[in-house]
What does this fold into?
Amino acid sequence: MPDTTKTNSVAVDGRVLLTEADLVGWRRDGYVIVRGLWSPEEVAACRTWFDELGERGEAVPGQWEPDLGSTDPLKRYPRHLQPHVYDDLSMRMLIDARIEAVIAALLGEPPIAAQSMFYYKPPGGLGQALHQDNLYLRVRPKTCVAAWTAIDRSHPENGGLYICPGTQDMALACPELANPKESFTSHFVRPPAGIEPVPAILDPGDVLFFGGSIVHGSRPNTTRGEWRRSFICHYAPESLEVMAEYYRAAVRFDGTPFGFELAEGGGPCGVEFPNGEAPTTFEQAEAMGLKPVASGSIPAAV
It folds into this structure.
């Protein structure tokens, strides 16, 4: 169980995970990095297991569907969606007590686990344009929190994550159309004037936590031989009233299912798009006559 000291730090089994300064930074910037939350052995087990699944190439319909003949690295090694539904290791990582302690401190209440994902991001893989997570989870009345675990070293050149500090209180924005030469997803959220994305440089085992309104994204992996594997989970406050239907695989931290009411409509795009939602694919956007932005506004790796 988590321990909260008199200085408002957070510890599990005697190890401090969040200091008082970390919590101050969270409130100021909307994100915090916990260095070395996962041990080298835990990281290696995660990497080895998903590499085995990747090489085996056995599809899980609707959740992992590789195109074994594709030369597109993200089609050959697509992201795993909700692997905790069919994989014990993913479930253990999703509901780990250390993660629970950190998320509970950041949310100020007990959390539930809404989503798990694993990204391979091989060399040549496209990035993901700047976006806000709660546009998709639709947690209300509060927001979600991401826990982004680096399985490999993550940095700008291999497509590491960028964060826009201070956007945690920004309203959910109606996305523009991303640049398909830079992003494998179609949504792009422009950061407010005066806020620039900053790189989150992570070593294996580090976990980046950030709120659901934080604007974040990544550039393509331009290295010749570095993969940028990551295990990414989303969490929400137990007191939530609604969440999007896709997250029906949500669980409590004891692994039991968590039920919730569905968030219906009410996207941030108003009457311009059906149901207030921007198109979710480049094909849909093209059919509507939308034009992509020139750039994803993430600085090129130097």
Summary: The CA atoms of residues 205 and 222 lie 22 Å apart.
